[in-house]
């Protein structure tokens, strides 16, 4: 059973270990010192940042992280997409990782994304769509999105998370269901 809770400061050592895993470090390219993790994840954990950092669990054991946020709270991100795609009113996005290397390649990413997207419609009644940019080279990530029901809607040029990458990204989208599901 997949569940989640807000990331909290006692989770930072686990998050650091995940960020150091090669399969995560390649795409997240994040500093992993205790100070850097506290600096970058502390504000959301304390509720001082608009994003939600969610520790994802399988049968109460942590295996991943999802960051969920409204585009409206990050106008610089909307500006980067401007002229390339429409960012609808109420659009949200997610970033995600499976930190535990023993859980990679087992279908949990798809289940995690499906569960978070479904919950988004309930947790955020004003959410209209979820847009997720993914670097074109991150095949595993964009395949997970496709399996989770998101559709590729555009090729966009965005600043990469890892400076070794070019700006080529795919943009995936899923809209709020209209049938009440």
Automatic annotation (TrEMBL):
<comment type="function">
    <text>Acyltransferase required for the direct transfer of medium- to long-chain fatty acyl moieties from a carrier protein (MbtL) on to the epsilon-amino group of lysine residue in the mycobactin core.</text>
</comment>
<feature type="domain" description="N-acetyltransferase">
    <location>
        <begin position="2"/>
        <end position="177"/>
    </location>
</feature>
<dbReference type="InterPro" id="IPR016181">
    <property type="entry name" value="Acyl_CoA_acyltransferase"/>
</dbReference>
<dbReference type="Pfam" id="PF13523">
    <property type="entry name" value="Acetyltransf_8"/>
</dbReference>
<comment type="pathway">
    <text>Siderophore biosynthesis; mycobactin biosynthesis.</text>
</comment>
<dbReference type="InterPro" id="IPR019432">
    <property type="entry name" value="Acyltransferase_MbtK/IucB-like"/>
</dbReference>
<dbReference type="InterPro" id="IPR000182">
    <property type="entry name" value="GNAT_dom"/>
</dbReference>
<protein>
    <recommendedName>
        <fullName>Lysine N-acyltransferase MbtK</fullName>
    </recommendedName>
</protein>
<keyword id="KW-0046">Antibiotic resistance</keyword>
């Amino acid at each position: 059973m997949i569940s989640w809770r807000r990331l909290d400061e006692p989770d930072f050592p686990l998050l650091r270990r995940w960020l150091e895993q090669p399969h995560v470090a390649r795409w997240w390219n994040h500093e992993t010192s205790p100070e850097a993790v506290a600096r970058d994840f502390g504000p959301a954990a304390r509720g001082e940042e608009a994003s939600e950092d969610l520790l994802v669990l399988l049968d109460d054991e942590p295996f991943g992280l999802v960051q969920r946020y409204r585009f409206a709270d990050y106008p610089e991100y909307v500006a980067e997409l401007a002229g390339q795609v429409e960012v609808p009113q109420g659009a949200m996005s997610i970033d995600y990782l499976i930190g535990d290397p023993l859980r990679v390649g087992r279908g949990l990413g798809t289940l995690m994304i499906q569960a978070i997207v479904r919950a988004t419609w309930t947790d955020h009644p004003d959410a209209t769509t979820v847009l997720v940019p993914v670097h074109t080279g991150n095949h595993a990530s964009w395949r997970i999105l496709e399996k989770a029901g998101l559709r590729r809607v555009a090729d966009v040029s965005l600043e990469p998370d890892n400076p070794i990458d070019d700006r080529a990204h795919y943009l995936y989208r899923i809209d709020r269901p209209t049938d009440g599901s």
